[in-house]
Amino acid sequence: MLKIGCHLSISKGFYEMGKEAVSINANTIQFFTRNPRGGAAKEIDEEDVQKFKELAKENKIENLLAHAPYTLNAAAAKPELRNFAKETMIDDLKKMEYFPGNMYNFHPGSHVGQGVEVGTEYIIEMLNDIIKPEQTTKVLLETMAGKGSEIGRNFEEIKNIIDKIDLKDHIGVCLDTCHIFDGGYDIVNKLDEVIEEFDQIIGLDKLYAIHLNDSMNECNSHKDRHAKIGEGNIGLEALVKVINHPKLKDLPFFLETPNDLEGYGKEIKILRDNYKN
Ligand code: FE
Ligand code: FE
Ligand code: ZN
């Protein structure tokens, strides 16, 4: 069975979010841990979490991916911004233990002119501070489009971070199809080669999740604007190959396409109809 879902909001609580997922036949869910522009997270309502868990179990929703606010920058030049990223992630990871065995994804960061090496060192330092041996949550580095001074613009930059993480069992990668396409990986014409390259550099054993998005821009544009499935330059055919690829087909997929709930439901249906078990 294809593991697919989309980005949903927890603003009305986990249970309501779960009901939305069920209504569109999603069996994975991504959500922001808090307002994506930063700010305080709501306290966990244990009753809401319990109701959600029962609903998730009944409906076989098995993969949760929490997404850190995209404004966090673990590679920032200002110590107070790096510290804010770290404190936020510590708090998010603590909350994720209400949902043991799931995943937490973040954008590695932007070096803001300090250079990739300096930024990378800050990211490594933060991860080694926050990843604890007892945690059950996988922390995922998202592959980025290379907009501005984003770190994680190619597989090598992700590998350089992972190489220096002490507790490697707790770290992995979330591959975003729009981001890698914009980053210069031609998944339309060379999907096998791109997957092979990922395996050679990072290792497919480190790949835990896929953000399935089309792209409004060209390959190698370094732009990062998501399009609806089949309405961008990657196209439906190539994305169907991604979900059916023997090395990817069992991973959880998460749509981050510009859609309302109904639009997500349509995309999930199209992808399920095109999935070969
Ligand atoms: Fe992201
Ligand atoms: Fe993404
Ligand atoms: Zn994006």
Helix and strand topology:
Elements: E1 4-8, H1 14-23, E2 28-32, H2 46-58, E3 63-67, H3 79-96, E4 103-106, E5 109-110, H4 116-130, E6 138-142, E7 150-151, H5 155-162, E8 171-176, H6 177-182, H7 191-201, E9 207-212, E10 214-215, E11 226-227, H8 235-244, E12 253-255, H9 261-273
Parallel strand pairs: 1-2, 1-12, 2-3, 3-4, 4-6, 6-8, 8-9, 9-12
Antiparallel strand pairs: 5-7, 10-11
The chain binds fe (iii) ion (FE) (2 copies) and zinc ion.
Protein model, in words:
With 277 residues, the chain is of the alpha/beta class. Helices cover 38% and strands 17% of the residues. It is built from 9 helices and 12 strands. Helix 2 links the parallel strand 2 and strand 3. The chain is globular and about 45 Å long. The N and C termini lie close together (6 Å). 43% of the residues are buried. The model has no long low-confidence stretch (mean pLDDT 97).
